[in-house]
Design goal:
By secondary structure, the protein is α/β, with parallel strands linked by helices. It contains 11 helices and 9 strands. The chain has 2 domains: 190 residues, 3-Layer(aba) Sandwich (Rossmann fold); 58 residues, rRNA adenine dimethylase, C-terminal domain (Helicase, Ruva Protein, domain 3, Orthogonal Bundle), CATH 1.10.8. The radius of gyration is 20 Å and the shape is elongated.
Length: 267
């Protein structure tokens, strides 16, 4: 049985077992109740993750891939030292999954060779569930991986960078060339590791923080006093030196400080 990669699903199946092993190793697996893999495809990464002896749930929307996984893993259960008790397949869209209901009270790690066309949405889904996602790692389009890991001062530093780094320690691990996939993508890929900070709550209204970051970067060429005018800033607050900066000049900590200033704004 084989699986045909589907362009509309952004499928590029990894062929290189050494890279699959390195991606599986990008999670620390410390204090995790369960691991979630997104988009397993033909299960190349799945087999290495199962060797870590954690309960694994995979989310796959492609019915052909689901049939392949069920067939392949039913044959290999003994060699993988796994069973239906610690491996389950959800034929479902991860982006629509209610993680709190499916994994109630559990601390999970998330891993995958993420479909490029929904990779940013996956990161935002992880951030929404950061109370239960202790770590996540995997392969993205290189440009996206670099953006998530980028520090202030760069043109690629943006919304994904600030919001992810507010709650996770992020490290860019390595680059993956197109030739190790079927079919080869037109771009390089990059693997990152994100480990939730011990203190992953912010000293500010987090919904307001998200709104400030997104609004600032939506007009990233403007100074903050202009891009954030929808917050009805007082004249005295506009004179604060931070509002003469552009968003890419602010670290995560400075965005927290900016949000605090806006929260206490006296119009």
């Amino acid at each position: 049985m084989s699986v045909t990669p589907k362009k509309h699903l952004g499928q590029h199946f990894l062929k290189d077992l050494n890279i699959a092993q390195k991606i599986a190793d990008s999670l620390t697996y410390q204090d995790l109740d369960e691991v979630i893999e997104i988009g397993p495809g033909t299960g190349v990464l799945t087999k290495f993750v199962l060797q870590k002896n954690h309960k694994l749930s995979v989310f796959e929307v492609d019915s052909e891939s689901v049939a392949y996984l069920k067939d392949d893993f039913s044959k290999e259960n003994l060699s993988l030292n796994t069973s239906s008790d610690n491996f389950q397949i959800f034929e479902a869209d991860f982006l629509k999954a209610q993680l709190d209901r499916l994994f109630s009270g559990k601390q999970v790690g998330i891993i995958g060779n993420y479909p490029y066309n929904i990779s940013s949405q996956i990161v935002f889904k992880v951030l929404e569930n950061r109370h239960m996602v202790k770590e996540f790692s995997g392969m993205f389009q290189k440009e996206v991986a670099q953006r998530i890991a980028e520090k202030k001062g760069s043109k690629t530093y943006g919304i994904l960078s600030v919001l992810t780094q507010a709650f996770y320690e992020v490290e860019y691990l390595f680059t993956v060339p197109p030739g190790v996939f079927n079919p080869p993508p037109k771009v390089d890929s990059g693997v990152i590791q994100c480990i939730r900070k011990k203190n992953h709550t912010l000293p500010v209204d987090e919904k307001l923080f998200f709104r400030v970051v997104k609004t600032a970067f939506n007009q990233r060429r403007k100074m903050l006093r202009s891009s954030l005018k929808s917050f009805n800033l007082s004249q005295s607050l506009k004179e604060d030196p931070i509002f003469a900066k552009r968003p890419e000049q602010l670290s995560v900590e400075e965005f927290v400080s900016l949000t605090q200033k806006i929260a206490s704004n006296d119009v």
